[in-house]
Design goal:
eight-stranded mixed beta sheet, single chain, 45% helix, 15% strand, seven-stranded mixed beta sheet, alpha/beta
C-alpha cells in the first residue's frame, strides 16, 4: 500500500507491532494523545474492507460468466478471492499480530461459509488466538497482541446476547463505548495512560480514514491517477489538523501508576459488569470495580526513608531518588537516535509507572551525551521545579526552568532525607581546559536507613581532591561506580574511603568501551562490596527503610523470564575473576 506524501510516494514500512505510514514524531504524539494509532496502521478494518471489496468484485464477475456458476458457486469464488487478497495484503503489510488476528478470523469465517456452518464470534476469536500463539509463542509479549484481541473480545462480549440489532448509529456509539471502557484496564497496565478524547477522535476519524482515505489510497495505488493520492493526502492533512487541535486539549490523556495484578483483575470484573446487556440489574456496581484502578496509588516511602532506582539506560546514567513527597532525577541517560532517547524510552515510562507526575528537582552531572541525552524529553513530558548542573550556560534546555550551577556546600532536606553537593567547588569557575568528566556534580544522599553517593564520571584527579577535602563524608552504603567502571576512576584510596556495601556499574551490554574494566571490578570485590551491573541485572532498585535497613533488587530478578541466563553459584568474587556480566 502506498501513500502519496507531497511530491513523492512512499511504501508503508514497519514500526514494531504496526505497519505504518511514515509520520513525524510530532504526528505520533498526536496519534498517541488521541488514541487513534490503529487508524494509521494496517488494521483489521482495512484488511476486511479490501477483502470484502475483492469478494464483491470477484462474485459479480463470476456471476456474469456463462455457465461459470454451474461449475462453482458464486459465493465460493468470492470467498477464495477474498481470502487470497487478505493473505497477500497481510504479507505485504509485514504480518504483524493485529494483521494475523484479522487474517485468521477471516479464514475461519470463510471456511464456515464454505461448509455452510454457523460459528460464534467467540470461537472464531479463540481459534485465531490459538493459531497466532502456535506460530509465534512470543507474540504474547507484544502490546499489539493484547490490544488487538482484547478490542475484538470486548466488542463481541458487549454486542452479543441482544434481542434485536440496534440502529446503525446507536450500534456505532455502543461499540465505541464498549471498546473505550473495556480497554481501560489493559491500557493502564501496558502504558499507564488512557486517552480521554479518543471517543471524540474516533467518531470522525474512523469513518473518514476507513471509508474515504484508505479507498482513495488503494485506488491510487492500482490506477495511474496521482490525483487520487493527492486527494487522500489532502484529506489526511485536514484530519491531522483537527486531531492536533484535539491533542492540545488540557488533560487529553489520563496518566497514572501501573495497577497491581489484584486491582487489574477487579477492574476487569467491573468492566464485564458494566458491559452487560441493558436490563441486567445492578450493572452500575461495575463502577466499584473500576474505582480502585484509578484511585489506588502506590504508597510512597515513609518519612526519613527513600527509594532509589538506578535505571537501565545502556551506556549512560539515570538515577531516581524518591522520598515521602519528593522526587529527584540524577542524569538523563544517553541518546539512541534522532527520535529516541533514554528520556522517552526509559525514564518517563518508569516515572509514569510509579505514579510520578512532577520532578521536584533534577541534577545533570556534566555535559556528555550519555548523561544529558534524555534531558529534552524529560523536560517536555514532566514539569521540573529546578535544575542543578555543570552544563554550559548556553545550553538551550536551561532556559526552560530555574537553573543553578552545581557547587560544593549546596544542601537541602526533603522529608527527613538530606542531600549534599560535594563537588565541584564552583562549576562556573572551573578552568576551560577541565574535562567534562571532571566537572561532574557529586551528590551525597543521607537517609535514616543508609547513604548513597552519586559521583557522575569523576576521574582520579577529582577523587584525590575529594579525599583531600571531604574524605570522612565520602563513606556510603551504596555507590554508583564513577565513570561506569573505567580504569580512569575508582582508585583504591577512593574505594577505601567510600567503603560501599553495594557498588552499581551502569554499563551498556557489550559496550565499545569495555566497561567495567576487570581491574576496577576486582578492587570493589576485594573491598567486600556486593556488585550489580545494569547490563545484566537491568534496573537496580533500592529500598532504604529505617527499621529494615537497605534492600536491593535487580529488575531481572524481580521480573524473571525463562530466557534469562543466571550462572549457578555466582558471587562477587566470580565477577571479579571473569569481568563478565552476572
Amino acid at each position: 500500500m502506498y501513500c502519496h506524501n507531497g511530491a513523492r510516494t512512499e511504501l508503508i514500512g514497519t514500526d514494531q507491532d504496526f505497519n505504518v505510514i511514515d509520520h513525524s514524531q510530532q504526528d505520533w504524539q498526536v496519534f498517541r494523545r488521541t488514541g487513534i494509532v490503529h487508524l494509521v496502521s494496517i488494521s483489521g478494518v482495512h484488511i476486511t474492507m479490501l477483502a470484502g471489496l475483492i469478494y464483491t468484485l470477484a462474485a459479480g464477475l463470476w456471476r456474469r460468466i456463462p455457465k461459470g456458476p454451474l461449475y462453482w458457486p458464486v459465493r465460493k469464488v468470492g470467498l477464495v478471492a477474498g481470502v487470497v487478497t487478505a493473505i497477500t495484503y497481510s504479507l505485504l503489510a509485514g504480518f504483524s499480530i493485529p494483521t494475523q488476528r484479522t487474517l485468521y478470523m477471516l479464514a475461519v469465517m470463510a471456511f464456515a461459509f464454505w461448509s455452510g456452518r454457523r460459528v460464534e464470534i467467540g470461537r472464531v476469536l479463540l481459534l485465531a488466538l490459538l493459531v497466532v500463539v502456535l506460530i509465534d509463542p512470543w507474540a504474547v509479549l507484544a502490546a499489539g497482541f493484547w490490544l488487538s484481541f482484547g478490542a475484538v473480545a470486548v466488542m463481541a462480549y458487549a454486542m452479543s446476547g441482544r434481542l434485536h440489532k440496534p440502529h446503525w448509529l446507536r450500534d456505532a456509539v455502543m461499540t465505541q463505548w464498549a471498546v473505550t471502557i473495556g480497554l481501560i484496564p489493559v491500557l493502564l497496565m501496558l502504558f499507564g495512560q488512557v486517552s480521554l478524547i479518543s471517543p471524540i477522535a474516533n467518531a470522525f476519524a474512523i469513518p473518514l480514514v476507513s471509508l474515504v482515505i484508505v479507498p482513495l489510497t488503494l485506488l491510487g495505488s492500482f490506477l495511474p491517477l496521482d490525483a487520487l493520492l493527492l486527494l487522500a493526502h489532502w484529506i489526511m492533512q485536514l484530519a491531522m489538523q483537527l486531531l492536533a487541535w484535539l491533542s492540545e486539549v488540557p488533560s487529553a490523556i489520563w496518566q497514572q501508576h501501573i495497577p497491581s495484578t489484584p486491582v487489574m483483575l477487579l477492574a476487569m470484573a467491573g468492566v464485564a459488569c458494566l458491559l452487560l446487556p441493558k436490563g441486567m440489574p445492578l450493572r452500575w456496581l461495575g463502577l466499584a470495580g473500576l474505582l480502585p484502578l484509578l484511585l489506588n496509588a502506590p504508597p510512597g516511602p515513609a518519612y526519613g526513608d527513600m527509594r532509589v532506582a538506578v535505571l537501565d539506560v545502556g551506556q549512560g546514567l539515570a538515577v531516581v531518588v524518591a522520598t515521602q513527597k519528593h522526587v529527584l532525577l540524577y542524569d538523563t541517560g544517553p541518546t539512541f537516535s534522532s527520535e529516541s532517547d533514554s528520556g522517552n524510552r526509559v525514564i518517563v515510562p518508569y516515572l509514569n509507572g510509579v505514579g510520578v507526575r512532577r520532578l521536584n528537582g533534577m541534577v545533570v552531572s556534566h555535559d556528555d551525551l550519555d548523561h544529558t541525552g534524555g534531558l529534552a524529553s524529560v523536560l517536555t513530558a514532566l514539569p521540573v521545579n529546578w535544575l542543578l548542573s555543570s552544563l554550559p550556560a548556553n545550553k538551550s534546555e536551561l532556559a526552560k526552568l530555574p537553573h543553578s550551577p552545581c557547587q560544593a556546600g549546596q544542601k537541602w532536606r526533603w522529608d527527613g532525607v538530606e542531600f549534599s553537593m560535594l563537588y565541584p567547588a564552583d562549576a562556573a569557575r572551573l578552568p576551560a581546559g577541565v574535562k567534562t568528566n571532571n566537572r561532574s556534580c557529586v551528590l551525597y544522599v543521607r537517609s535514616a536507613a543508609g547513604t548513597l553517593l552519586l559521583p557522575g564520571d569523576i576521574e582520579r584527579s577529582v577523587e584525590a581532591d575529594l579525599l583531600d577535602t571531604v574524605a570522612p563524608a565520602l563513606a556510603a552504603d551504596v555507590l554508583v561506580v564513577p565513570h561506569h567502571g573505567s580504569r580512569t576512576s575508582s582508585t583504591s584510596s577512593f574505594i577505601h574511603a567510600v567503603s560501599p556495601q553495594v557498588a552499581v556499574f551502569t554499563v551498556g551490554y557489550r559496550n565499545r568501551f569495555h566497561h567495567p574494566r576487570n581491574e576496577v571490578v576486582s578492587r570493589y570485590a576485594n573491598a567486600g562490596a556486593s556488585l550489580y551491573r545494569s547490563d545484566h541485572d537491568g534496573a537496580v532498585l533500592f529500598d532504604f527503610r529505617q527499621h529494615q535497613g537497605i534492600s536491593v533488587t535487580g529488575w531481572r530478578e524481580k521480573s524473571q523470564r525463562y530466557w534469562y541466563n543466571q550462572p549457578a553459584g555466582f558471587t562477587s568474587a566470580s565477577l571479579a575473576e571473569t569481568g563478565n556480566a552476572r
